[in-house]
Amino acid sequence: MGADPVAASIFAAFVVVTLGITYWANRRSAGTQDFYAAGGRITARQNGLAIAGDYLSAASFLGTISVFFSIGTDGLLYAVGAVAGWPIATFLIGERLRNLGRYTFSDALGFRLAERPVRALAAVSTLCLSSCYLVAQLVGAGTLVQILFNVPYAQAVVLVGTLMMIYVTFGGMVATTWIQIVKASLLLLTTLAMVVLVFAHFGPHLDSVIGGALSARPDPERFLRPGRLVTDGVSAISLGLAFVLGPAGLPHVLMRFFTVKDGQSARRSLSYATAIIALFQFVVILLGYAAAALVPNGPLPGGPNMAAIHLARALGGETLLGITAAVTFATILAVVSGLTLAAASAVSHDLYKHVWKRGQGTETAELRISRVATVLLGIIVIYVAILFQHENIGFLATLPLVIAASVNSSMCFWRCTGVV
Fold first, then answer.
1. Is the pTM of the predicted complex or chain greater than 0.90?
2. What gap in Å lies between CA 108 and CA 168, rounded to an integer?
3. Can you give 206-273 as a three-state secondary structure string?
4. What is the pLDDT of residues 54-92, one digit of tens each?
5. Residues 6+ apart with CB under 8 A from 239
6. b/e string for 109-121 if b means 16 or more Cβ within 10 A?
7. How crowded is residue 210: how many other Cβ atoms within 10 Å of its Cβ?
Protein backbone atom coordinates (compact mmCIF):
# COMPACT_ATOMS: atom_id res chain seq x y z
CA MET A 1 0.00 0.00 0.00
CA GLY A 2 2.96 2.32 0.51
CA ALA A 3 4.01 4.46 3.43
CA ASP A 4 1.43 7.08 4.41
CA PRO A 5 2.66 10.36 5.94
CA VAL A 6 -0.48 10.84 8.04
CA ALA A 7 -0.21 7.35 9.50
CA ALA A 8 3.52 7.78 10.06
CA SER A 9 2.99 11.07 11.89
CA ILE A 10 0.26 9.67 14.17
CA PHE A 11 2.29 6.52 14.79
CA ALA A 12 5.26 8.61 15.83
CA ALA A 13 3.14 10.94 17.98
CA PHE A 14 1.56 8.06 19.86
CA VAL A 15 4.90 6.35 20.47
CA VAL A 16 6.37 9.61 21.80
CA VAL A 17 3.35 10.25 24.06
CA THR A 18 3.34 6.72 25.46
CA LEU A 19 7.08 6.75 26.08
CA GLY A 20 6.56 10.05 27.91
CA ILE A 21 3.83 8.42 30.02
CA THR A 22 6.21 5.53 30.75
CA TYR A 23 8.93 7.92 31.89
CA TRP A 24 6.46 9.81 34.11
CA ALA A 25 5.13 6.55 35.57
CA ASN A 26 8.63 5.26 36.25
CA ARG A 27 9.35 8.34 38.36
CA ARG A 28 6.14 7.81 40.35
CA SER A 29 6.49 4.06 40.93
CA ALA A 30 8.04 2.95 44.21
CA GLY A 31 7.86 -0.73 45.08
CA THR A 32 5.60 -3.61 44.12
CA GLN A 33 2.36 -1.87 45.16
CA ASP A 34 2.86 0.78 42.48
CA PHE A 35 4.33 -1.62 39.89
CA TYR A 36 1.50 -4.17 40.08
CA ALA A 37 -1.53 -2.12 41.22
CA ALA A 38 -0.74 1.59 40.63
CA GLY A 39 -0.88 2.08 44.39
CA GLY A 40 -4.69 1.73 44.33
CA ARG A 41 -4.93 5.37 43.19
CA ILE A 42 -6.95 4.89 39.97
CA THR A 43 -10.53 6.20 40.06
CA ALA A 44 -13.52 4.05 39.07
CA ARG A 45 -14.11 5.94 35.81
CA GLN A 46 -10.46 5.83 34.84
CA ASN A 47 -10.30 2.14 35.67
CA GLY A 48 -13.49 1.41 33.73
CA LEU A 49 -12.03 3.02 30.64
CA ALA A 50 -8.75 1.13 31.17
CA ILE A 51 -10.60 -2.21 31.57
CA ALA A 52 -12.49 -1.53 28.34
CA GLY A 53 -9.16 -0.66 26.73
CA ASP A 54 -7.68 -3.96 27.88
CA TYR A 55 -10.54 -5.91 26.32
CA LEU A 56 -11.01 -3.87 23.13
CA SER A 57 -8.00 -5.32 21.39
CA ALA A 58 -6.95 -5.94 17.82
CA ALA A 59 -9.14 -9.05 17.92
CA SER A 60 -12.20 -6.97 18.81
CA PHE A 61 -11.64 -4.47 16.01
CA LEU A 62 -9.63 -6.14 13.26
CA GLY A 63 -10.63 -9.73 14.01
CA THR A 64 -14.41 -9.27 14.29
CA ILE A 65 -14.65 -7.10 11.18
CA SER A 66 -12.49 -9.69 9.39
CA VAL A 67 -14.99 -12.43 10.32
CA PHE A 68 -17.90 -10.38 8.91
CA PHE A 69 -15.93 -9.67 5.74
CA SER A 70 -14.76 -13.28 5.22
CA ILE A 71 -17.62 -15.39 6.57
CA GLY A 72 -20.68 -13.21 7.02
CA THR A 73 -23.30 -12.95 9.72
CA ASP A 74 -21.49 -15.45 11.97
CA GLY A 75 -19.41 -12.44 12.98
CA LEU A 76 -22.32 -11.67 15.35
CA LEU A 77 -21.06 -14.51 17.54
CA TYR A 78 -17.86 -12.58 18.20
CA ALA A 79 -19.51 -9.17 18.53
CA VAL A 80 -22.35 -10.20 20.86
CA GLY A 81 -20.26 -12.74 22.71
CA ALA A 82 -17.72 -10.08 23.60
CA VAL A 83 -20.33 -8.37 25.80
CA ALA A 84 -21.99 -11.45 27.29
CA GLY A 85 -19.51 -12.20 30.06
CA TRP A 86 -19.22 -8.76 31.61
CA PRO A 87 -22.37 -8.82 33.77
CA ILE A 88 -21.00 -11.98 35.43
CA ALA A 89 -17.69 -10.27 36.13
CA THR A 90 -19.53 -7.21 37.44
CA PHE A 91 -21.95 -8.87 39.86
CA LEU A 92 -20.08 -12.00 40.97
CA ILE A 93 -16.35 -11.36 40.75
CA GLY A 94 -15.10 -7.76 40.74
CA GLU A 95 -16.05 -6.44 44.17
CA ARG A 96 -15.38 -9.70 46.01
CA LEU A 97 -11.99 -10.18 44.39
CA ARG A 98 -10.95 -6.62 45.23
CA ASN A 99 -11.91 -7.14 48.86
CA LEU A 100 -9.81 -10.31 49.04
CA GLY A 101 -6.69 -9.67 46.98
CA ARG A 102 -3.69 -7.41 46.93
CA TYR A 103 -1.90 -7.61 43.58
CA THR A 104 -3.12 -10.59 41.53
CA PHE A 105 -6.16 -12.86 41.60
CA SER A 106 -3.96 -15.72 42.82
CA ASP A 107 -3.45 -13.70 46.03
CA ALA A 108 -7.17 -14.11 46.64
CA LEU A 109 -7.17 -17.78 45.61
CA GLY A 110 -4.32 -18.58 47.97
CA PHE A 111 -5.99 -16.96 50.98
CA ARG A 112 -7.98 -20.09 51.94
CA LEU A 113 -7.09 -22.70 49.32
CA ALA A 114 -3.79 -24.63 49.34
CA GLU A 115 -1.55 -21.67 48.57
CA ARG A 116 1.44 -23.09 46.70
CA PRO A 117 -0.44 -25.52 44.38
CA VAL A 118 -3.18 -23.02 43.51
CA ARG A 119 -0.64 -20.24 42.88
CA ALA A 120 1.37 -22.52 40.62
CA LEU A 121 -1.76 -23.49 38.64
CA ALA A 122 -2.93 -19.87 38.38
CA ALA A 123 0.52 -18.72 37.25
CA VAL A 124 0.85 -21.40 34.57
CA SER A 125 -2.64 -20.70 33.19
CA THR A 126 -1.88 -16.96 33.21
CA LEU A 127 1.32 -17.51 31.24
CA CYS A 128 -0.43 -19.73 28.67
CA LEU A 129 -3.36 -17.33 28.32
CA SER A 130 -1.24 -14.19 28.09
CA SER A 131 1.13 -15.76 25.56
CA CYS A 132 -1.74 -16.77 23.25
CA TYR A 133 -3.28 -13.30 23.51
CA LEU A 134 0.07 -11.61 22.89
CA VAL A 135 0.64 -13.65 19.74
CA ALA A 136 -2.77 -12.53 18.37
CA GLN A 137 -1.97 -8.86 19.03
CA LEU A 138 1.52 -9.04 17.55
CA VAL A 139 0.23 -10.76 14.40
CA GLY A 140 -2.16 -7.85 13.89
CA ALA A 141 0.49 -5.23 14.61
CA GLY A 142 3.07 -6.85 12.38
CA THR A 143 0.68 -7.12 9.44
CA LEU A 144 -0.47 -3.54 9.92
CA VAL A 145 3.03 -2.06 9.96
CA GLN A 146 4.05 -4.30 7.07
CA ILE A 147 1.37 -3.13 4.65
CA LEU A 148 1.56 0.54 5.64
CA PHE A 149 5.29 1.07 5.64
CA ASN A 150 6.59 -1.67 3.33
CA VAL A 151 8.80 -3.22 5.99
CA PRO A 152 9.24 -6.98 6.41
CA TYR A 153 6.69 -8.60 8.70
CA ALA A 154 9.34 -10.01 11.04
CA GLN A 155 10.91 -6.60 11.57
CA ALA A 156 7.50 -5.06 12.29
CA VAL A 157 6.77 -7.68 14.97
CA VAL A 158 10.18 -7.11 16.57
CA LEU A 159 9.51 -3.34 16.69
CA VAL A 160 6.14 -3.78 18.44
CA GLY A 161 7.52 -6.39 20.82
CA THR A 162 10.39 -4.10 21.81
CA LEU A 163 8.05 -1.22 22.60
CA MET A 164 5.90 -3.60 24.65
CA MET A 165 8.89 -4.65 26.77
CA ILE A 166 9.91 -1.02 27.35
CA TYR A 167 6.44 0.00 28.58
CA VAL A 168 6.17 -2.81 31.12
CA THR A 169 9.80 -2.95 32.24
CA PHE A 170 9.99 0.74 33.10
CA GLY A 171 6.39 1.87 33.62
CA GLY A 172 4.47 -0.91 35.36
CA MET A 173 0.74 -0.62 36.04
CA VAL A 174 0.66 3.20 36.20
CA ALA A 175 1.99 3.55 32.65
CA THR A 176 -0.13 0.65 31.37
CA THR A 177 -3.31 2.17 32.83
CA TRP A 178 -2.84 5.61 31.32
CA ILE A 179 -1.79 4.19 27.95
CA GLN A 180 -5.04 2.16 28.00
CA ILE A 181 -7.09 5.26 28.81
CA VAL A 182 -5.57 7.22 25.93
CA LYS A 183 -5.92 4.31 23.55
CA ALA A 184 -9.54 3.47 24.46
CA SER A 185 -10.58 7.10 23.97
CA LEU A 186 -8.91 7.27 20.56
CA LEU A 187 -10.41 3.96 19.45
CA LEU A 188 -13.95 4.97 20.41
CA LEU A 189 -13.68 8.34 18.69
CA THR A 190 -12.28 6.78 15.51
CA THR A 191 -14.90 4.05 15.23
CA LEU A 192 -17.73 6.51 15.89
CA ALA A 193 -16.36 8.76 13.13
CA MET A 194 -16.38 5.75 10.79
CA VAL A 195 -20.02 5.07 11.74
CA VAL A 196 -20.97 8.64 10.82
CA LEU A 197 -19.34 8.16 7.42
CA VAL A 198 -21.09 4.80 6.92
CA PHE A 199 -24.49 6.38 7.59
CA ALA A 200 -23.59 9.28 5.30
CA HIS A 201 -22.92 6.72 2.56
CA PHE A 202 -25.89 4.36 3.08
CA GLY A 203 -28.39 6.48 4.98
CA PRO A 204 -29.37 6.26 8.66
CA HIS A 205 -30.64 2.67 8.60
CA LEU A 206 -28.86 -0.58 9.41
CA ASP A 207 -30.99 -2.37 6.82
CA SER A 208 -29.39 -0.27 4.09
CA VAL A 209 -25.91 -1.27 5.22
CA ILE A 210 -26.84 -4.97 5.32
CA GLY A 211 -28.48 -4.63 1.91
CA GLY A 212 -25.28 -3.11 0.55
CA ALA A 213 -23.30 -6.03 1.95
CA LEU A 214 -25.64 -8.56 0.32
CA SER A 215 -25.55 -6.82 -3.06
CA ALA A 216 -21.74 -6.81 -2.99
CA ARG A 217 -21.45 -10.53 -2.18
CA PRO A 218 -21.46 -13.14 -4.95
CA ASP A 219 -23.33 -15.52 -2.58
CA PRO A 220 -25.75 -13.35 -0.53
CA GLU A 221 -27.74 -16.29 0.84
CA ARG A 222 -24.60 -17.95 2.13
CA PHE A 223 -23.47 -14.64 3.66
CA LEU A 224 -26.61 -14.53 5.83
CA ARG A 225 -26.70 -18.24 6.64
CA PRO A 226 -25.32 -19.10 10.12
CA GLY A 227 -23.09 -22.08 10.76
CA ARG A 228 -20.03 -21.24 8.66
CA LEU A 229 -17.92 -20.34 11.69
CA VAL A 230 -19.08 -23.21 13.91
CA THR A 231 -20.59 -26.21 12.18
CA ASP A 232 -22.37 -28.00 15.05
CA GLY A 233 -24.28 -27.25 18.23
CA VAL A 234 -21.60 -28.49 20.61
CA SER A 235 -19.03 -26.13 19.09
CA ALA A 236 -21.50 -23.23 19.27
CA ILE A 237 -22.18 -23.90 22.97
CA SER A 238 -18.47 -24.24 23.67
CA LEU A 239 -17.70 -20.93 21.97
CA GLY A 240 -20.56 -19.27 23.84
CA LEU A 241 -19.27 -20.51 27.20
CA ALA A 242 -15.81 -19.19 26.36
CA PHE A 243 -17.26 -15.73 25.73
CA VAL A 244 -19.54 -15.79 28.78
CA LEU A 245 -17.01 -17.09 31.32
CA GLY A 246 -13.79 -15.85 29.73
CA PRO A 247 -13.84 -12.17 30.85
CA ALA A 248 -14.11 -13.25 34.51
CA GLY A 249 -10.81 -15.10 34.14
CA LEU A 250 -8.62 -12.77 32.09
CA PRO A 251 -5.60 -12.03 34.32
CA HIS A 252 -4.79 -8.62 32.83
CA VAL A 253 -8.41 -7.58 33.52
CA LEU A 254 -8.53 -9.15 36.99
CA MET A 255 -5.40 -7.21 37.98
CA ARG A 256 -7.28 -3.98 37.38
CA PHE A 257 -9.63 -4.66 40.28
CA PHE A 258 -6.70 -3.95 42.60
CA THR A 259 -5.86 -0.54 41.12
CA VAL A 260 -8.88 1.12 42.79
CA LYS A 261 -9.32 1.87 46.48
CA ASP A 262 -12.13 -0.54 47.42
CA GLY A 263 -14.64 -3.16 46.26
CA GLN A 264 -17.37 -0.64 45.46
CA SER A 265 -15.02 1.18 43.10
CA ALA A 266 -14.16 -2.14 41.45
CA ARG A 267 -17.87 -2.80 40.78
CA ARG A 268 -18.39 0.70 39.42
CA SER A 269 -15.34 0.25 37.19
CA LEU A 270 -16.89 -2.83 35.65
CA SER A 271 -20.20 -1.03 35.11
CA TYR A 272 -18.43 1.70 33.13
CA ALA A 273 -16.39 -0.90 31.22
CA THR A 274 -19.47 -2.96 30.30
CA ALA A 275 -21.27 0.08 28.88
CA ILE A 276 -18.24 1.10 26.80
CA ILE A 277 -17.67 -2.43 25.49
CA ALA A 278 -21.35 -2.85 24.55
CA LEU A 279 -21.31 0.44 22.61
CA PHE A 280 -18.12 -0.54 20.83
CA GLN A 281 -19.38 -3.98 19.80
CA PHE A 282 -22.60 -2.48 18.39
CA VAL A 283 -20.43 -0.15 16.33
CA VAL A 284 -18.26 -3.07 15.17
CA ILE A 285 -21.35 -4.95 13.92
CA LEU A 286 -22.22 -1.98 11.73
CA LEU A 287 -18.63 -1.64 10.50
CA GLY A 288 -18.47 -5.38 9.77
CA TYR A 289 -21.43 -5.18 7.39
CA ALA A 290 -20.01 -1.98 5.91
CA ALA A 291 -16.70 -3.73 5.21
CA ALA A 292 -18.57 -6.52 3.41
CA ALA A 293 -20.34 -3.87 1.33
CA LEU A 294 -17.50 -1.48 0.51
CA VAL A 295 -14.25 -3.49 0.55
CA PRO A 296 -13.74 -5.33 -2.75
CA ASN A 297 -13.84 -9.11 -2.81
CA GLY A 298 -10.64 -10.89 -3.59
CA PRO A 299 -7.11 -10.80 -2.23
CA LEU A 300 -6.38 -7.80 0.02
CA PRO A 301 -2.99 -6.36 0.99
CA GLY A 302 -2.44 -7.84 4.43
CA GLY A 303 -5.23 -10.39 3.98
CA PRO A 304 -8.75 -10.39 5.51
CA ASN A 305 -7.31 -9.32 8.88
CA MET A 306 -6.88 -5.83 7.41
CA ALA A 307 -10.48 -5.45 6.16
CA ALA A 308 -11.12 -2.71 8.76
CA ILE A 309 -8.15 -0.71 7.47
CA HIS A 310 -9.35 -1.00 3.86
CA LEU A 311 -12.84 0.04 5.00
CA ALA A 312 -11.32 3.21 6.47
CA ARG A 313 -9.75 3.99 3.10
CA ALA A 314 -13.06 3.42 1.31
CA LEU A 315 -14.86 5.77 3.72
CA GLY A 316 -12.35 8.58 4.17
CA GLY A 317 -9.43 8.10 1.82
CA GLU A 318 -5.78 8.08 2.87
CA THR A 319 -6.33 10.43 5.81
CA LEU A 320 -8.85 8.20 7.58
CA LEU A 321 -6.79 5.16 6.67
CA GLY A 322 -3.77 6.72 8.35
CA ILE A 323 -5.71 7.69 11.46
CA THR A 324 -7.40 4.28 11.77
CA ALA A 325 -4.14 2.42 11.25
CA ALA A 326 -2.36 4.53 13.86
CA VAL A 327 -5.17 4.09 16.41
CA THR A 328 -5.21 0.34 15.74
CA PHE A 329 -1.49 0.28 16.32
CA ALA A 330 -2.03 2.18 19.57
CA THR A 331 -4.69 -0.37 20.53
CA ILE A 332 -2.29 -3.25 20.06
CA LEU A 333 0.55 -1.58 21.97
CA ALA A 334 -1.73 -0.82 24.91
CA VAL A 335 -3.21 -4.32 25.13
CA VAL A 336 0.14 -6.11 24.90
CA SER A 337 1.44 -3.94 27.73
CA GLY A 338 -1.34 -5.10 30.06
CA LEU A 339 -0.94 -8.72 29.02
CA THR A 340 2.81 -8.66 29.52
CA LEU A 341 2.46 -7.11 32.97
CA ALA A 342 0.03 -9.87 33.99
CA ALA A 343 2.40 -12.57 32.74
CA ALA A 344 5.42 -10.97 34.42
CA SER A 345 3.56 -10.74 37.73
CA ALA A 346 2.67 -14.44 37.48
CA VAL A 347 6.38 -15.28 37.24
CA SER A 348 7.73 -12.86 39.84
CA HIS A 349 4.92 -12.50 42.39
CA ASP A 350 3.40 -15.99 42.24
CA LEU A 351 6.04 -18.46 41.07
CA TYR A 352 9.17 -16.75 42.42
CA LYS A 353 8.04 -15.10 45.65
CA HIS A 354 5.23 -17.37 46.88
CA VAL A 355 5.96 -20.78 45.32
CA TRP A 356 9.76 -20.87 45.28
CA LYS A 357 10.65 -18.45 48.09
CA ARG A 358 7.52 -19.28 50.16
CA GLY A 359 6.66 -15.60 50.58
CA GLN A 360 10.14 -14.58 51.76
CA GLY A 361 11.46 -12.88 48.60
CA THR A 362 12.37 -9.19 48.77
CA GLU A 363 10.59 -6.50 46.76
CA THR A 364 13.83 -5.63 44.95
CA ALA A 365 14.36 -9.21 43.82
CA GLU A 366 10.70 -9.55 42.85
CA LEU A 367 10.80 -6.47 40.62
CA ARG A 368 14.06 -7.65 39.05
CA ILE A 369 12.55 -11.07 38.26
CA SER A 370 9.47 -9.36 36.81
CA ARG A 371 11.56 -7.30 34.41
CA VAL A 372 13.64 -10.28 33.34
CA ALA A 373 10.44 -12.27 32.76
CA THR A 374 9.08 -9.43 30.62
CA VAL A 375 12.09 -9.57 28.31
CA LEU A 376 12.11 -13.37 28.04
CA LEU A 377 8.37 -13.56 27.39
CA GLY A 378 8.68 -10.80 24.79
CA ILE A 379 11.33 -12.74 22.88
CA ILE A 380 9.25 -15.94 22.90
CA VAL A 381 5.98 -14.37 21.71
CA ILE A 382 7.78 -12.38 19.01
CA TYR A 383 9.16 -15.64 17.59
CA VAL A 384 5.76 -17.39 17.73
CA ALA A 385 3.98 -14.39 16.18
CA ILE A 386 6.36 -14.55 13.21
CA LEU A 387 5.38 -18.21 12.70
CA PHE A 388 1.63 -17.43 12.92
CA GLN A 389 1.65 -14.59 10.40
CA HIS A 390 -1.29 -15.81 8.29
CA GLU A 391 -3.71 -16.93 11.05
CA ASN A 392 -6.97 -15.07 11.65
CA ILE A 393 -6.61 -12.69 14.61
CA GLY A 394 -10.12 -13.35 15.90
CA PHE A 395 -9.45 -17.10 16.03
CA LEU A 396 -6.11 -16.63 17.80
CA ALA A 397 -7.70 -14.35 20.40
CA THR A 398 -10.45 -16.89 21.14
CA LEU A 399 -7.93 -19.46 22.39
CA PRO A 400 -7.02 -17.49 25.56
CA LEU A 401 -10.72 -16.99 26.30
CA VAL A 402 -11.09 -20.77 26.34
CA ILE A 403 -8.26 -21.06 28.88
CA ALA A 404 -9.71 -18.23 30.96
CA ALA A 405 -13.20 -19.74 30.94
CA SER A 406 -12.11 -23.28 31.77
CA VAL A 407 -9.44 -22.59 34.41
CA ASN A 408 -9.25 -19.06 35.82
CA SER A 409 -13.00 -18.40 35.92
CA SER A 410 -13.66 -21.66 37.76
CA MET A 411 -11.09 -20.79 40.42
CA CYS A 412 -12.46 -17.24 40.76
CA PHE A 413 -16.05 -18.49 41.16
CA TRP A 414 -14.91 -21.02 43.73
CA ARG A 415 -13.05 -18.44 45.78
CA CYS A 416 -15.41 -15.48 45.43
CA THR A 417 -18.85 -17.12 45.52
CA GLY A 418 -18.40 -20.60 46.92
CA VAL A 419 -20.68 -21.88 44.13
CA VAL A 420 -18.21 -23.71 41.93
1. no
2. 23
3. HHHHHHHHHHHCCCHHHHHCCCCCCCCHHHHHHHHHHHHHCHHHCHHHHHHHHHCCCHHHHHHHHHHH
4. 777 766 788 788 888 888 887 787 788 778 777 777 666
5. 77, 81, 230, 398
6. bbeebebeebbbb
7. 20
